[in-house]
Design a protein that fits this description.
552 residues; mainly beta; 13-stranded parallel sheet; 7 helices
């Protein structure tokens, strides 16, 4: 994808050019609506049942690890024949997820591709698209990039049945307790500075795809939902004006990558001019799936780039000010697993009456795409300077607490002692503004949020005296969509930050949930902030937290 001050990001016509330091490579063109067509009639394999409480979580129980499998999905998982050998030079043939977590933990990853069918990009003159076409023609497999430096000039559209893999990283870990780990992939993929390019797919039926063991410099992972959006396609309007979800595919894997410097340099992608300041809805990893999403052992590292920017804020007002400061590369979302890009559709459903307009009203009956099964986010390290570390939504088996999304053993590091000059790139910040600065943002039902850590800090606003609002460690709020049912919050430690409350905020209903053994940030509460007009807290066990629970 190429972005400039004159041309907004258009993802319907994409050209690929991938290169290494020495060869001159051939440019190849990919059209999304040619290879991966949107279908207006697609309804997706969403099915539901009602449990005893009348809440719809989905229809298939998990396997104890949050995996979701349906007959429809399994029928489409056709592996390569045993005779497939890939290309001449080959490459690693192990399943790295099984190597780290065991064969039985995520069996869908074992069968998503034939891991022994490897297409080495060196056998295709470093032409990534040619290697992928060969893999697709063989029924799928692994496209392998040996150690080295490669450059993307446009988005690379990842195909179903393909895992894009770099040099193996062995036992290297993304996190070491509350510090960044030693994960350092030797395969480096570079994207143009602050253009929010990377590895992309928005096919409604995309399935069995992965991104593994890459060092992504300025490159985002965008395994997006297919949305019905009437506006011109760009990074903002695609989700902002979306009216429906056409599909999200299944079996998406993002594992063992180091990612940094993901940003888009204009506050409004629909009007790429004016101040150079991050677009606030950018995300380093966005992974959406109807069944099975695994985002694990990724290191979202602190930016190693430095650039100055001069911005004019509150233009034409008495408070007008010109500021020269460091460009905040890390002011972006970290991991988005099924939540942020659905905000426009949530608004459209509420406005049209497809879902009730009252807070917390989303259910799997009216919005099944918000309650996908098999969402797993674990063992990641996220550095950030504004926005949210991990955002997600999903659903459980309809009866068991903690049977939905598994958000486990992640660390979020929020920069300390920084100034938020502006949230939107236009207005000077003030004390009532929010840049979120949030560790974990929960939606969906039956979440298991356990053993995570965070160092959460708010930012100073422009006057240097006040800080931005929010700064939660873990939050489930009414404004984002659904009430709280069958959740587990256990053993999370946010004690090292200057902020970091852990609470449900003004939900109408919080039921059948556990809040235990958590530690909030300095002088921060744990519990439930109720909506006084609609207060229903039922069967919530809150124990052994520091501080003690309030509102329960």
């Amino acid at each position: 994808m190429a972005l400039s001050s004159a041309v907004a990001w258009c993802a319907f016509l994409l050209r690929l050019l991938i290169s290494v330091s020495s060869p001159v490579l051939e440019a190849r063109e990919i059209r999304i609506n040619e290879h991966f067509p949107f279908r207006a009639d697609y309804s997706g394999p969403f099915r539901h049942h009602q449990n005893a409480e009348g809440m719809n979580d989905g229809d298939i129980a998990g396997n104890g690890y949050g995996e979701h499998s349906t007959t429809a999905v399994a029928a489409n998982q056709t592996l390569l024949s045993a005779s497939c050998t890939g290309s001449k030079s080959g490459g690693p043939t192990d399943n790295p997820v099984a190597s780290m977590y065991g064969n039985a933990t995520y069996p869908w990853v074992n069968r998503m591709v034939n891991w022994s069918c490897v297409f080495n990009v060196k056998d295709f003159h470093d032409d990534l698209e040619s290697a992928q076409k060969a893999a697709v023609a063989s029924g799928g497999g692994v496209v392998y990039l040996p150690a080295g430096k490669y450059t993307l000039k446009e988005n690379f559209v990842l195909a179903s049945g393909v895992v894009l893999r770099g040099e193996p990283t062995g036992t290297e870990k993304a996190r070491n307790n509350k510090e960044a780990g030693n994960l350092a992939p030797k395969t480096v993929l570079e994207c143009p500075d602050r253009e929010h390019m990377g590895i992309f797919n928005s096919d409604p039926k995309a399935m069995n795809m992965g991104v593994i063991n890459l060092d992504l410099s300025g490159c985002a992972v965008m395994l997006w939902p297919a949305l019905n959006s009437p506006s011109k396609f760009n990074l903002k309007s695609y989700f902002y004006y979306a009216t429906d979800v056409l599909g999200m595919g299944s079996n998406k894997l993002v594992f063992g990558n180091r990612i940094r410097d993901v940003s888009y340099k204009y506050p409004d992608p629909a009007s790429p001019t004016g101040n150079i300041w991050p677009y606030r809805w950018s995300a380093a990893i966005a992974a959406y799936s109807e069944n099975n999403t695994l985002v694990a052992n990724n290191l979202l590292a602190k930016s190693d780039k430095f650039a100055k920017t001069t911005i004019k804020l509150d233009v034409g007002k008495p408070t007008e000010k010109t500021v020269t400061t460091d460009y905040p590369y890390d002011n972006r979302y970290g991991i988005d697993a099924g939540q942020v890009l659905l905000g426009g559709v949530i608004g459209a459903y509420s406005k049209s009456g497809k879902c009730p307009s009252s807070p917390g009203s989303l259910t799997p009956k009216c919005a099944p795409w918000y309650f996908s099964r098999g969402v797993i986010v674990r063992d990641n390290y996220i550095y950030m300077n504004g926005r949210v570390g991990i955002s997600w939504s999903g659903g459980g088996d309809g009866k068991t607490i903690g049977s939905g999304p598994q958000i486990v053993s992640n660390h979020v590091e929020v920069a300390k002692g920084t100034t938020c000059w502006t949230v939107d790139g236009v207005h000077l910040s003030k004390g009532s503004d929010t840049n979120e600065n949030r560790g974990f943002n929960q939606e969906g039902y039956a979440n298991n949020v356990s053993a995570n850590t965070a160092n959460v800090n708010r930012q100073l606003v422009s006057d240097g005296h006040y800080t931005t609002v929010d700064g939660e460690g873990l939050l489930h709020q009414a404004a984002s969509g659904n009430d709280g049912y069958r959740n587990i919050w256990h053993g999370n430690d946010f004690s090292s930050g200057s902020s970091g409350p852990i609470f449900y905020y003004k939900l109408y209903n919080v039921e059948d949930s556990v809040i235990s053994n958590n530690i909030a940030g300095k002088d921060s509460p744990i519990g439930i902030v109720v909506d006084e007009a609609h207060h229903n807290v039922k069967n919530v066990k809150c124990s052994d937290n520091k501080p003690k629970c309030t509102g329960v």
